[in-house]
Amino acid sequence: MLIEQIYTGCLAQGAYYVESEGECVIIDPLREVNQYIEKATENGAKIKYILETHFHADFVSGHLELSKKTGATIVYGPTAKPDFEALIATDGQILEVGKLKIKVLHTPGHTMESTTYLLFDENGKEYCIFSGDTLFIGDVGRPDLAQKSDLTIHDLAGFLFDSLRNKIMTLPDTLLVYPAHGAGSACGKNMSKETYDTLGNQKMFNYALRANMSREEFIKEVTDGLELVPPPYYFPKNVMMNKTGAKDVDMVKSQVQALSPAAFEAAANETGAIMIDTRPQQTFKNAFVPNSIFIGIKGDFAPWVGTLLTDIEQPILIIADEENREDVITRLSRVGYDNIIGYLDGGVEAWTAAGKETDSIESISALEFAEKFKAAEGKILVKDVRKPTEYSAEHVDDAMNIPLANLSKNMTEFSKTESNYLHCASGYRSMVAASILKSRGFDNVVDVAGGFKAIAETDVPRTDFVCQTKMK
């Protein structure tokens, strides 16, 4: 028996390769499927099943392409209604893979078709579960992502309570839990950085699995605070792409054109494309194509694209270092942003060599910020673009919390006459915010390099969260 977790950090997503006696299954595959085919080929195995735990919202799955290339059967749990041929398994159905058996456990709650797969080893012993978004390490799937449903969030949370108590918590404590996501995913709110654990540990440390928890307490705790962190705009679109089928990722890549500076500029003007600069933030701030926005490849690139670009069909132009260009395209396609027109051939260096203007963003150190803050006796405009939970823990005195995800809804909170000092936790999100504000005509933004982590090392006055009205 071979079980391999194939973890993709930028999406905090875990796919799984399970093999026995020359047969294998792939669970929750990403869109670029050749990696799974190559692994099976190297091992002399045939992919028999592609198991989907649910219709994913946070990435485009590779199930259709993988099935087309290998002939493997796509499997969903009960109530799933895909627009393509698939095995809709019944609750309790057994799938055989070599000497292994996989039992289908219908575990609705995160979504109504959500399914957990229970693996029995060669000796018939319950070995592990592939829990999808039903059970994470330290958390459970949020119940507010179901699409076009008459059920309320509280209804779904109730279903999730039943699924956990009746289907999962009755299993042996020694069982390994392999979830679909880890910390950083928007599919939960309290996920651990660990990517697997035993069920026994989760019963002890996962707040949602407390033995003495009532149904009402569970619903309240699981739904609490979800309104403060709404799911990214692209989630519903990804669900539909996974239900109906997405085009081959190789087709997406083939359409991306290398554009000269003149052609790049013309494309931006003619199509209204968003120009995304993915270079390191400290490089970006010094010189960038005017009106381009920074979303660095080294951060949570795809989730932030999905959060900030509300139209999944939005034309996109890329500015990237050559060694990262293909990775940028791959990551965009993983979350369904397929309308990538092209990239700036030669990068910003080619742009400046062509005699075209660049823009820049003022960035100061935390120490400089502290000096300005004290000199002005705190009477400067400080905008904290972290999440409300981060802000509530500790923040600069009188700073206004405008989370990056809500930036576009709060443009009137920024001044066009006074300097707006922006910070996040470490500098990535504040540079994204500064670039967006620049593109909207705010020329007086100042990024605080190093973010709150660096500010906390100065003597700038800070306070715990006091008044909810400060949150935007």
UniProtKB/TrEMBL annotation:
Residues 269-360, 376-464 form the Rhodanese domain. Keywords: Metal-binding. SMART domains: Lactamase_B, RHOD. The keyword Metal-binding applies. Transmembrane segments: none annotated. GO terms for molecular function: metal ion binding; sulfur dioxygenase activity. One of its GO terms (biological process) is glutathione metabolic process. This is MBL fold metallo-hydrolase.
